[in-house]
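FAQ

Q: What does a record look like?
A: Structure on top, sequence underneath. For example:
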């Protein structure tokens, strides 16, 4: 039995009768790709939000809330708008198609990134010119990726998310 996917779908499989090892490798590769895509959007919003919050002297929780909102906006935008162009979906249709997978992936990523940044003191650095701001971000970004990778693997396995 053939399994058909979009030809550019990195999650595509030739047949349903693949071996478990090949399926696992494909799923892990797809999850790694989806997580990297998610991380790109998250880091854009996270960085802008933290830079605004730290520069304007916001309370750390306010800075983290702003960075989280901006991470969701940029993360969803990097998925919704390409889907609208590629699949010719309207905005609401594209959003309905991706919202759950992106919500869970970005949510986990942001929770971990903000937690690492907070505990390392980056969000309380006082200035974006303080080395601590960048050091905390340098640890937060890979931590967010590592935390979201198994989430994306699970989402793709349950067909709740496609790799982008």
């Amino acid at each position: 039995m053939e399994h058909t996917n979009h030809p550019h779908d990195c999650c595509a499989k030739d047949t349903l009768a693949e071996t478990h090892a090949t399926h696992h490798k494909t799923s892990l590769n797809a999850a790694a790709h989806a997580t990297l895509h998610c991380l790109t959007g998250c880091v854009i919003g996270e960085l802008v939000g933290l830079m605004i919050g730290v520069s304007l002297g916001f309370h750390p929780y306010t800075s983290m809330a702003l960075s989280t909102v901006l991470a969701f906006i940029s993360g969803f935008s990097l998925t919704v708008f390409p889907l609208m162009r590629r699949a010719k979906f309207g905005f609401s249709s594209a959003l309905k198609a991706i919202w759950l997978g992106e919500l869970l992936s970005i949510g986990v990523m942001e929770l971990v990134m903000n937690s690492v940044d907070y505990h390392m003191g980056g969000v309380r650095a006082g200035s974006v010119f303080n080395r601590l701001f960048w050091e905390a971000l340098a640890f937060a970004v890979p931590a967010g990726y590592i935390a979201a990778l198994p989430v994306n693997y699970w989402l793709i396995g349950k067909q709740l998310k496609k790799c982008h």
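Q: Is there anything notable about this one?
A: Residues 21-157 form one domain.
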